[in-house]
Amino acid sequence: MQVESIVQVIAMGDTDEIVKEFLVESYENLDRLDRNLVLLEKSPQDREILASVFRTIHTIKGTSGFLAFDKLGAVTHVGESLLGRLRDGELVLDGEITTALLAMVDAVRQMLASIESNGSEGERDDIALISRLTELQHAGDLPRDQWASGPAEAAAPASIPDASMPSASIERSFPAGAPDPRFSDTDAAAKRRLQPSPQGTGDSTIRLDVSLLDQLMNLVGELVLARNQILQCANTSEDSSLLAASQRLNLITTDLQEGVMKTRMQPIGNIWSKFPRTVRDLALACGKQVRVAMEGEETELDKTLIEAI
Protein backbone atom coordinates (compact mmCIF):
# COMPACT_ATOMS: atom_id res chain seq x y z
CA MET A 1 0.00 0.00 0.00
CA GLN A 2 1.27 3.49 -0.89
CA VAL A 3 2.09 6.04 1.80
CA GLU A 4 -0.87 8.16 0.65
CA SER A 5 -3.21 5.22 1.25
CA ILE A 6 -1.86 4.69 4.77
CA VAL A 7 -2.37 8.37 5.58
CA GLN A 8 -5.88 8.12 4.15
CA VAL A 9 -6.71 5.17 6.40
CA ILE A 10 -5.55 7.13 9.44
CA ALA A 11 -7.53 10.17 8.33
CA MET A 12 -10.65 8.04 8.03
CA GLY A 13 -10.41 7.23 11.72
CA ASP A 14 -9.44 3.58 11.42
CA THR A 15 -6.34 3.94 13.58
CA ASP A 16 -8.15 2.89 16.75
CA GLU A 17 -9.24 -0.36 15.12
CA ILE A 18 -5.68 -1.03 13.95
CA VAL A 19 -4.35 -0.40 17.46
CA LYS A 20 -6.98 -2.71 18.94
CA GLU A 21 -6.06 -5.51 16.56
CA PHE A 22 -2.38 -4.86 17.23
CA LEU A 23 -2.95 -5.23 20.98
CA VAL A 24 -4.93 -8.46 20.64
CA GLU A 25 -2.31 -10.09 18.40
CA SER A 26 0.59 -8.82 20.49
CA TYR A 27 -0.86 -10.18 23.74
CA GLU A 28 -1.26 -13.59 22.11
CA ASN A 29 2.28 -13.43 20.78
CA LEU A 30 3.73 -12.44 24.16
CA ASP A 31 2.21 -15.47 25.88
CA ARG A 32 3.76 -17.63 23.19
CA LEU A 33 7.08 -15.80 23.58
CA ASP A 34 7.25 -16.68 27.28
CA ARG A 35 6.80 -20.36 26.45
CA ASN A 36 9.16 -20.35 23.49
CA LEU A 37 12.00 -18.59 25.29
CA VAL A 38 11.83 -21.06 28.19
CA LEU A 39 11.84 -23.94 25.70
CA LEU A 40 14.65 -22.34 23.74
CA GLU A 41 16.79 -22.07 26.85
CA LYS A 42 16.65 -25.86 27.12
CA SER A 43 17.17 -26.38 23.38
CA PRO A 44 19.19 -23.37 22.14
CA GLN A 45 19.85 -25.01 18.77
CA ASP A 46 16.14 -25.29 17.89
CA ARG A 47 16.09 -23.13 14.78
CA GLU A 48 12.33 -23.31 14.33
CA ILE A 49 11.53 -21.88 17.78
CA LEU A 50 14.24 -19.25 17.43
CA ALA A 51 12.88 -18.16 14.04
CA SER A 52 9.37 -17.94 15.52
CA VAL A 53 10.59 -15.72 18.37
CA PHE A 54 12.47 -13.48 15.93
CA ARG A 55 9.43 -13.09 13.65
CA THR A 56 7.19 -12.20 16.58
CA ILE A 57 9.48 -9.43 17.83
CA HIS A 58 10.04 -8.21 14.28
CA THR A 59 6.28 -7.90 13.75
CA ILE A 60 5.72 -6.01 17.00
CA LYS A 61 8.61 -3.70 16.21
CA GLY A 62 7.41 -2.96 12.69
CA THR A 63 3.83 -2.25 13.70
CA SER A 64 4.83 -0.15 16.71
CA GLY A 65 6.99 1.98 14.41
CA PHE A 66 4.08 2.51 12.04
CA LEU A 67 1.77 3.45 14.92
CA ALA A 68 4.41 5.81 16.39
CA PHE A 69 4.88 3.88 19.65
CA ASP A 70 8.51 4.95 19.83
CA LYS A 71 9.45 3.53 23.22
CA LEU A 72 7.99 0.16 22.30
CA GLY A 73 9.82 0.29 19.00
CA ALA A 74 13.13 1.13 20.70
CA VAL A 75 12.98 -1.85 23.06
CA THR A 76 11.88 -4.34 20.40
CA HIS A 77 14.45 -2.99 17.95
CA VAL A 78 17.41 -3.85 20.18
CA GLY A 79 15.77 -7.14 21.13
CA GLU A 80 15.38 -8.03 17.47
CA SER A 81 19.05 -7.22 16.87
CA LEU A 82 20.07 -9.63 19.64
CA LEU A 83 17.75 -12.31 18.29
CA GLY A 84 19.18 -11.74 14.83
CA ARG A 85 22.67 -12.68 16.01
CA LEU A 86 21.24 -15.73 17.75
CA ARG A 87 19.36 -16.72 14.61
CA ASP A 88 22.47 -16.29 12.46
CA GLY A 89 24.51 -18.49 14.81
CA GLU A 90 26.81 -15.67 15.92
CA LEU A 91 25.70 -16.12 19.54
CA VAL A 92 24.39 -19.07 21.54
CA LEU A 93 21.44 -18.60 23.85
CA ASP A 94 22.25 -19.01 27.54
CA GLY A 95 20.62 -18.15 30.85
CA GLU A 96 21.76 -14.52 30.83
CA ILE A 97 20.42 -13.86 27.36
CA THR A 98 17.16 -15.64 28.16
CA THR A 99 16.67 -13.54 31.29
CA ALA A 100 17.29 -10.33 29.33
CA LEU A 101 14.89 -11.33 26.56
CA LEU A 102 12.21 -12.24 29.10
CA ALA A 103 12.73 -8.82 30.70
CA MET A 104 12.15 -7.33 27.26
CA VAL A 105 8.90 -9.32 26.97
CA ASP A 106 7.81 -7.98 30.37
CA ALA A 107 8.58 -4.42 29.29
CA VAL A 108 6.60 -4.88 26.07
CA ARG A 109 3.68 -6.32 28.03
CA GLN A 110 3.70 -3.32 30.38
CA MET A 111 3.72 -0.88 27.47
CA LEU A 112 0.87 -2.72 25.75
CA ALA A 113 -1.18 -2.55 28.95
CA SER A 114 -0.53 1.19 29.14
CA ILE A 115 -1.49 1.65 25.48
CA GLU A 116 -4.71 -0.27 26.10
CA SER A 117 -5.63 1.81 29.15
CA ASN A 118 -4.68 5.33 28.06
CA GLY A 119 -3.40 5.16 24.49
CA SER A 120 0.28 5.77 25.27
CA GLU A 121 3.26 3.75 26.46
CA GLY A 122 3.47 5.76 29.67
CA GLU A 123 6.39 7.42 31.39
CA ARG A 124 9.19 4.88 31.13
CA ASP A 125 12.93 4.59 31.44
CA ASP A 126 14.13 1.53 29.54
CA ILE A 127 17.70 2.72 29.05
CA ALA A 128 19.09 0.06 31.42
CA LEU A 129 17.20 -2.71 29.60
CA ILE A 130 18.27 -1.46 26.18
CA SER A 131 21.88 -1.21 27.36
CA ARG A 132 21.76 -4.75 28.73
CA LEU A 133 20.34 -6.18 25.51
CA THR A 134 22.91 -4.26 23.50
CA GLU A 135 25.72 -5.49 25.76
CA LEU A 136 24.63 -9.08 25.28
CA GLN A 137 24.29 -8.56 21.54
CA HIS A 138 27.97 -7.57 21.33
CA ALA A 139 29.21 -9.86 24.09
CA GLY A 140 30.76 -12.16 21.51
CA ASP A 141 32.92 -9.30 20.27
CA LEU A 142 34.65 -8.90 23.64
CA PRO A 143 36.21 -11.29 26.16
CA ARG A 144 33.69 -12.15 28.88
CA ASP A 145 35.74 -10.34 31.55
CA GLN A 146 35.43 -7.11 29.53
CA TRP A 147 31.64 -7.16 29.10
CA ALA A 148 31.00 -4.66 31.87
CA SER A 149 34.18 -2.62 31.43
CA GLY A 150 34.50 -2.61 27.65
CA PRO A 151 34.50 0.61 25.66
CA ALA A 152 31.18 2.39 25.47
CA GLU A 153 31.21 2.40 21.69
CA ALA A 154 31.36 -1.41 21.70
CA ALA A 155 28.40 -1.70 24.05
CA ALA A 156 26.06 0.71 22.29
CA PRO A 157 26.02 0.81 18.49
CA ALA A 158 24.84 4.03 16.93
CA SER A 159 21.93 2.32 15.21
CA ILE A 160 20.14 1.51 18.47
CA PRO A 161 17.60 4.24 19.25
CA ASP A 162 17.46 5.63 22.77
CA ALA A 163 14.19 5.12 24.65
CA SER A 164 13.92 8.87 25.14
CA MET A 165 14.15 9.69 21.43
CA PRO A 166 11.05 11.49 20.12
CA SER A 167 10.87 9.17 17.10
CA ALA A 168 11.78 5.56 16.42
CA SER A 169 13.09 6.53 13.00
CA ILE A 170 16.88 6.46 12.61
CA GLU A 171 18.58 9.08 10.50
CA ARG A 172 20.95 7.45 8.02
CA SER A 173 22.48 8.28 4.67
CA PHE A 174 20.99 6.47 1.69
CA PRO A 175 22.23 6.41 -1.88
CA ALA A 176 20.20 8.09 -4.58
CA GLY A 177 17.15 6.08 -5.51
CA ALA A 178 17.01 4.24 -2.17
CA PRO A 179 13.60 3.83 -0.53
CA ASP A 180 12.47 6.44 2.01
CA PRO A 181 13.77 5.24 5.43
CA ARG A 182 10.64 6.53 7.10
CA PHE A 183 8.69 3.77 5.40
CA SER A 184 11.26 1.01 5.18
CA ASP A 185 10.88 -2.72 5.74
CA THR A 186 10.28 -2.11 9.45
CA ASP A 187 6.80 -0.87 8.50
CA ALA A 188 6.16 -3.65 5.99
CA ALA A 189 4.16 -5.72 8.45
CA ALA A 190 1.95 -2.77 9.32
CA LYS A 191 1.35 -1.98 5.65
CA ARG A 192 0.43 -5.58 4.90
CA ARG A 193 -2.16 -5.47 7.69
CA LEU A 194 -3.98 -2.73 5.78
CA GLN A 195 -4.00 -4.59 2.48
CA PRO A 196 -6.46 -7.28 1.44
CA SER A 197 -4.59 -10.52 2.07
CA PRO A 198 -4.57 -13.30 -0.51
CA GLN A 199 -6.60 -16.40 0.16
CA GLY A 200 -4.66 -18.52 2.62
CA THR A 201 -4.48 -19.85 6.15
CA GLY A 202 -5.22 -16.40 7.58
CA ASP A 203 -8.67 -16.51 5.97
CA SER A 204 -9.64 -19.66 7.85
CA THR A 205 -9.89 -17.89 11.22
CA ILE A 206 -11.78 -14.90 12.56
CA ARG A 207 -11.88 -13.11 15.93
CA LEU A 208 -15.24 -12.75 17.66
CA ASP A 209 -16.26 -10.82 20.73
CA VAL A 210 -17.16 -13.19 23.57
CA SER A 211 -20.38 -11.24 24.15
CA LEU A 212 -21.51 -12.22 20.66
CA LEU A 213 -20.97 -15.89 21.45
CA ASP A 214 -22.94 -15.44 24.68
CA GLN A 215 -25.83 -13.98 22.70
CA LEU A 216 -25.70 -16.90 20.27
CA MET A 217 -25.73 -19.34 23.17
CA ASN A 218 -28.81 -17.65 24.63
CA LEU A 219 -30.58 -17.77 21.28
CA VAL A 220 -29.68 -21.44 20.83
CA GLY A 221 -31.08 -22.11 24.31
CA GLU A 222 -34.39 -20.51 23.30
CA LEU A 223 -34.35 -22.52 20.07
CA VAL A 224 -33.87 -25.76 22.03
CA LEU A 225 -36.90 -24.98 24.19
CA ALA A 226 -39.01 -24.25 21.11
CA ARG A 227 -37.71 -27.46 19.49
CA ASN A 228 -38.80 -29.50 22.52
CA GLN A 229 -42.32 -28.02 22.40
CA ILE A 230 -42.64 -28.82 18.69
CA LEU A 231 -41.41 -32.39 19.26
CA GLN A 232 -44.07 -32.91 21.94
CA CYS A 233 -46.79 -31.69 19.63
CA ALA A 234 -45.50 -33.76 16.70
CA ASN A 235 -45.34 -36.94 18.76
CA THR A 236 -49.06 -36.67 19.57
CA SER A 237 -49.99 -35.83 15.99
CA GLU A 238 -50.81 -38.24 13.22
CA ASP A 239 -49.51 -35.84 10.59
CA SER A 240 -46.49 -37.57 9.04
CA SER A 241 -45.25 -34.35 7.42
CA LEU A 242 -45.20 -32.56 10.79
CA LEU A 243 -43.39 -35.50 12.38
CA ALA A 244 -40.72 -35.54 9.65
CA ALA A 245 -40.24 -31.76 9.85
CA SER A 246 -39.90 -31.89 13.65
CA GLN A 247 -37.29 -34.63 13.42
CA ARG A 248 -35.35 -32.58 10.88
CA LEU A 249 -35.59 -29.55 13.17
CA ASN A 250 -34.32 -31.69 16.05
CA LEU A 251 -31.19 -32.73 14.12
CA ILE A 252 -30.42 -29.20 12.93
CA THR A 253 -30.93 -27.69 16.39
CA THR A 254 -28.69 -30.32 18.00
CA ASP A 255 -25.91 -29.71 15.45
CA LEU A 256 -26.21 -25.95 15.88
CA GLN A 257 -26.06 -26.23 19.67
CA GLU A 258 -22.93 -28.40 19.52
CA GLY A 259 -21.30 -26.08 16.98
CA VAL A 260 -21.84 -22.95 19.08
CA MET A 261 -20.58 -24.72 22.19
CA LYS A 262 -17.39 -25.77 20.36
CA THR A 263 -16.62 -22.15 19.51
CA ARG A 264 -16.37 -21.45 23.24
CA MET A 265 -14.05 -24.35 23.99
CA GLN A 266 -10.40 -23.65 24.73
CA PRO A 267 -7.54 -25.99 25.71
CA ILE A 268 -6.64 -25.84 29.38
CA GLY A 269 -3.05 -25.50 28.23
CA ASN A 270 -3.84 -21.79 27.71
CA ILE A 271 -3.80 -21.46 31.50
CA TRP A 272 -0.79 -23.68 32.02
CA SER A 273 1.26 -21.76 29.47
CA LYS A 274 2.25 -19.25 32.16
CA PHE A 275 3.64 -21.92 34.49
CA PRO A 276 7.03 -22.62 32.81
CA ARG A 277 8.00 -18.93 32.87
CA THR A 278 6.85 -18.52 36.48
CA VAL A 279 8.68 -21.64 37.62
CA ARG A 280 11.83 -20.60 35.76
CA ASP A 281 11.90 -17.21 37.49
CA LEU A 282 11.31 -18.74 40.91
CA ALA A 283 13.92 -21.45 40.37
CA LEU A 284 16.46 -18.85 39.26
CA ALA A 285 15.73 -16.66 42.27
CA CYS A 286 16.03 -19.60 44.66
CA GLY A 287 19.06 -21.17 43.00
CA LYS A 288 17.20 -24.42 42.39
CA GLN A 289 16.71 -26.69 39.41
CA VAL A 290 13.05 -27.40 38.73
CA ARG A 291 11.44 -29.45 35.97
CA VAL A 292 7.86 -28.72 34.95
CA ALA A 293 5.82 -31.63 33.56
CA MET A 294 2.31 -31.03 32.21
CA GLU A 295 -0.06 -33.67 30.87
CA GLY A 296 -3.49 -33.33 29.31
CA GLU A 297 -2.98 -29.70 28.31
CA GLU A 298 -5.00 -30.26 25.13
CA THR A 299 -8.15 -30.97 27.17
CA GLU A 300 -10.80 -28.41 26.23
CA LEU A 301 -13.11 -26.54 28.60
CA ASP A 302 -15.67 -23.80 28.14
CA LYS A 303 -14.15 -20.31 28.08
CA THR A 304 -16.13 -19.35 31.18
CA LEU A 305 -14.54 -22.21 33.15
CA ILE A 306 -11.10 -21.35 31.78
CA GLU A 307 -11.48 -17.76 32.99
CA ALA A 308 -12.79 -18.89 36.38
CA ILE A 309 -9.81 -21.22 36.86
Describe the structure.
The structure is a single chain. This protein has 309 residues and is an all-alpha fold. It is 62% helix and 2% strand. The chain contains 13 helices and two strands; from the N terminus they run ααααααααααβααβα. It has a two-stranded antiparallel ribbon. The longest helix is centred in the N-terminal third of the chain and has 28 residues. The radius of gyration is 26 Å and the shape is elongated. The N terminus is likely disordered.
A few lines on this structure:
This protein has a two-stranded antiparallel sheet with strand order 1-2. It is mainly α and 309 residues long.
Keywords:
mainly alpha; disordered N terminus; two-stranded antiparallel sheet; single chain; 309 residues; elongated
